[in-house]
Amino acid sequence: MSLTFQIQKTRGLARRATLTLPHGAVETPVFMPVGTQGTVKAIPQHLLEELDVRILLGNTYHLYLRPGHEEIRRMDGLHRFMSWDRAILTDSGGFQVFSLSELRKVTEDGVAFRSHIDGSSHFFSPEHSMDVQIALGSDIGMAFDECTEYPADHARARVSLNRTLGWARRSRDHFEQRKHDRPWGQRSAFGVQRSENEPDLLADRFEGKTPSLFGIVQGGMFADLRRECTERLVEMDFPGYAIGGLSVGEPRELTREMIATTLPLLPADKPRYVMGVGYPDEIAEYARMGVDMMDCVLPTRAARHGLLFTSEGRLNIRNRQYAEDQGPADPACGCMVCRRYSRAYLRHLMAAQEPLAAVLNTVHNLAFYLETMRKVREEIAAETVSQESRMGDQAVGESMKR
Amino acid sequence: MSLTFQIQKTRGLARRATLTLPHGAVETPVFMPVGTQGTVKAIPQHLLEELDVRILLGNTYHLYLRPGHEEIRRMDGLHRFMSWDRAILTDSGGFQVFSLSELRKVTEDGVAFRSHIDGSSHFFSPEHSMDVQIALGSDIGMAFDECTEYPADHARARVSLNRTLGWARRSRDHFEQRKHDRPWGQRSAFGVQRSENEPDLLADRFEGKTPSLFGIVQGGMFADLRRECTERLVEMDFPGYAIGGLSVGEPRELTREMIATTLPLLPADKPRYVMGVGYPDEIAEYARMGVDMMDCVLPTRAARHGLLFTSEGRLNIRNRQYAEDQGPADPACGCMVCRRYSRAYLRHLMAAQEPLAAVLNTVHNLAFYLETMRKVREEIAAETVSQESRMGDQAVGESMKR
């Protein structure tokens, strides 16, 4: 099987599961760090492993432009290229085409655009997006969709939805034809120095396995369109589904509403992925609502700006009040940064514009996000629904709100 | 003893020794990475430990300006501030005052200058430099000297030399008076979370120990001035000596000549430190000439520009020829970068301007420099001077030339 999703326990709407992919097992609910250009900014892969990251995101748009999907295919895929032997999910490139590139022209066939790097002309269609993702060799790829802008009225959201559905069908059909052409198993996906005596067993490791394609529910902020899109995608029988087009500027109540509207219509036995969220309290909340997978640049991007997420709330480590604060960023955190470095030092690194600031802040924020999800998984998996657990639920809920 | 220098073996002019400082033992000859602002750029302290760095440099000028020596003193010194429990050497601030600041005015008393950060006015004298270094709490401090510019004629070098000698005497006198006021032992110098049961033994660890001050030989490129300066400094009986004012634009033959002129006049039983050198073949060469300690920004700065030092010579990893090169940066290197990542990936990180480039390139270059010195130490320590050893000497010498 190229993808299995084994639910071990439920608690209310939440599910504790194991998602098994060609490059390993992922415990869900899971938060996926974003490694846009084949790197989670500033963090070496062995530190990601120490944080127990099991799956990360690569961006198809960026990697297509640089270094190129054919180049990466020739080098046996993104896993080997970035020396990451665990799971990778790639987005379709659709979102960045709309948000980053210049001079976009959308037709039924796809999107013509100019690279934000050098202005060169390119064309992304559902078929081409599938080819790029298969060449990269991610474990999970995403259908090429149109991320409806916000705000959009019902008529506009309807047109966008129709396009997304047509592109979803084309994505699926093309992906099914080509998915066996993934660049796995030719050589070790980990490290560049192999013992000469090492047998070439890796071909067996991926034998018969292919990447999997998820569909993406759009529909703007309209419950009826969301429901319609969901039903049509479910008919196409994807192995997993994402809810896209959220966290695009809408108020949080609307985000929650669209998730709550959509989730019940998605197959319960398949993974459900909300793209592009969120703050620590959000991801915990959505996990409790039944979301299995989430990704967001927030912990990593905020880190580089000195914004740290902690059990005591958010803090801006650049603030002068920390100049002689010798305590850790988060007294309740056991990450390598909080066990070793002081707030005063982290503040100094930001003030001095030192590259180590990005490294340490990012390690902490990722540790905080991953620990947040680990606690939710633990909560779902807990056997007793005792008074303590209920109080724990409430306490976790309260602390997650900050 | 605050500093012991135990020579275990000599080979020709070279010495294999252990320099024991309050914050630990350093095997010499040694290359000291530069941690200008209390951080070796982009490298977390635990990676420095994994590389077996035993001593690093902090820059007095930078730390005085930001975050400030009194602030660092209040936080129990630079070791604790940067969570580095091994040895630290601080320079005097003299070089940066001359090279970085604006509107410098030099008098017999010291140097008035404006900060390069915000233009504020400051004054550095020998006494003030000693106060700052003691407040930082380095294991070794450097006398406040005037780094003679290059080129300088004999008359100019003479005037500069006289100033350096006067300032050396003032540095020594003031340092001797104040060295007991170092901020060690109040609390753990490692990490910010201590067990409540941990006894406060650290006060014993540094009891009776103080920082040590090294003198710096100047004299421009004039053998007679260098000899005179050396003799006068030796009369002042410093625990160690540096040769300064080199690698300031002079041809390498002149660098070597000044080192060769000076070393025989320095006490053989004390450490000899050449400041600001050099390329891998240089540091090996000078170590074989009898130099015990060296520092340079080259491996770390070059790394950030994509210049990697390898057993096959220097390579610019940004070069297009590496775009699909799946081998390691250096096939002969066992560092964490060469064991895991490919040249193609390192090149991509540079092209994509990703912060991970600085991390990985720096780890490799430091590993290469430290391994270079380790091999020289091993060579000096080797028992037999066999035909193989002589051939090894020649091979190492050849490979170091690139």
State the end-to-end distance of chain A: 41 Å
Number of helices of chain A: 15
Oligomer: homodimer
Overall pLDDT metric of chain A: 92
Contiguous uncertain segments of 5+ residues of chain A: none
Shape of chain A: globular
The helix-and-strand class of chain A reads: alpha/beta
Considering residues with a beta carbon less than 8 A from a beta carbon on another chain, report the largest interface and each chain's count.
A-B, 46 and 46 residues
- Strand content range of chain A: 15-25%
Radius of gyration of chain A, whole Å: 21 Å
Largest sheet of chain A: 6 strands, parallel
The side-by-side strand order for the widest beta sheet of chain A comes to 4-14-13-12-11-10
Number of strands of chain A: 16
Determine the fraction of residues in helical runs of chain A and give it as a percent range. 25-40%
If you had to describe this structure to a student in words, what would you say it looks like?
2 copies of one chain form a homodimer. Chain A has 15 helices and 16 strands. With 402 residues, chain A is an alpha/beta fold. In chain A, a hairpin with a 2-residue loop joins strand 2 (14-21) and strand 3. The mean pLDDT of chain A is 92. The interface between A and B is large, with 46 and 46 residues.
